């Protein structure tokens, strides 16, 4: 059976949420394991690694759909940005966060981060956020 | 008539002497000083509400043209306010919106929609028309989750992990659904965070844990699955103070997405008084600035906010109507459709009457977390500088719940159950430390932790050895999975299974939704599947059935059939 993509699923928050209880078949780890395979036996035999206990971009987009359907636009957008960030290693996530602090980056550095997010990780929503920050930081004089 | 001025040396009356002895007179009170922001919610310097939209963009807000927006204004205008309803919502009189908040026949979602179009100054005008009883009536409708919950502080003045484990077990057994720790010596964090997690598993399953640290470290512990959620993500109401906190709304919004990208629940923190305390309130009222924080949280897309002055409670607490403003903060966070962990988490007054009065608005209305840190340890052990309630207040809290039939999310637990859970927590931590090659926990420590009231009742640990071990936890890359394996290997299979379930919830993302907690059955309860449906008398959450029977139990209740007997 082919893997179902999040935009092909129509979720009803009333009957499908929590997804772990009502739609477990939709949930996979970032490594592609179905959530039901995360058993104690699998942990003890070493078949579950720390990366398996993370959320996948598809799941975040499903949860974004749930949030949208209960009227939480900004929460959904956060989940969609998060879906993009699942592809980034931890240290890169932390380093971008540090670059976004006030007086930490030049406009060019922020633009480069945005370009990298978009080019390397297809993280268009996150790139948009970083570009917007670069503009505001310039206007408010909090670039490095 | 004009009174004769009394000579300076006039002795005080006996009445005055008695009043001077009252604890409330140890509290600090100051006059309002609006020019520096020492005013709760009614300042002549707060802006006048206004909004102008052109081509789908807010080009003027609260009297300021877009070109003059500071970064909070811009973030709020572009991300928090619903441009499609703002002109309609802003056309309503503040008192009309306030009436919608209070009127049980107007649904929560109708209010959320209208409020979503209001600017910070307009939201301030709305709550300025409301007294505290009206705000409480509104809060019981606007709270996002139907079922109230509570959060504990589980800390130790000596950062003693054995004590923290035992306290976490007791706190979860007493009903807390979130447990927060922090440190005296920050380098102790990995050991204490593990202790908190393990201890929580020995009580009622499903209490989520967090360790309050600097942003990047907190995220790292979360990513490793040693903690389950995060809350110490501070936002501020003026641009200079936000920058002093080394953040901006954009860095914080990015951080919110970073947490969600790892499946970790997170909320922001803010509160009245932080800006004036940090010396840059720009002459605005505390509540106006806090409303900006609430809208930054909303715009960032984070699911919730810890507010209600929090660690700055002494500031609004010192000025007139300050505690009314603190209630207004909680109400507006809930009205912004955010989870609200509603303060009551910091030592506030020497007066028992006053700290109870400060608590009642949140307790009686019910919030997502009535305390965002009820000290589950004696206040001398509270490393958040003491809470409004501590572990010596448990029986009073339970009695107030029973007197008023109001659910503050705690319960009385018989001594033998508490001792069993505390002992098991300490034993399990002893085993986990042994499995992970961490410093020994002796049987004597287990015994002491079981019966302790605070850290003074425990033997001293070898701090240097512990700190070396804490560093090794980080260096060796120990994760929540290692803790699961250690618990299972040591025969604490039920606790291992519970932790695996908690971590599996990250894969599903269900806990990322607004106001999510885990039930003792390890099911997610959030504002999606447990949405507040309060619609007046006879509706909404009311403690009944098994929960009400549980609330009726206290330490000493005389049996109806045998007055010689106490039922436990």
From TrEMBL, chain B:
All copies of domain Diol/glycerol dehydratase large subunit, residue ranges: 13-561
Matches recorded under InterPro entries: Cbl-dep_enz_cat (IPR016176), Diol/glycerol_deHase_lsu_sf (IPR036999), Diol/glycerol_deHydtase_lsu (IPR003206)
Enzyme Commission number(s) of this protein: 4.2.1.28
Gene3D superfamilies the record matches: Diol/glycerol dehydratase, large subunit
Signal peptide: none
EC primary class: lyase
Domain of life, source organism: Bacteria
GO molecular function, one term: propanediol dehydratase activity
Protein keywords: Lyase
Protein name: Propanediol dehydratase large subunit
Organism of origin: Prauserella isguenensis
Biological classification of the source: Bacteria, Bacillati, Actinomycetota, Actinomycetes, Pseudonocardiales
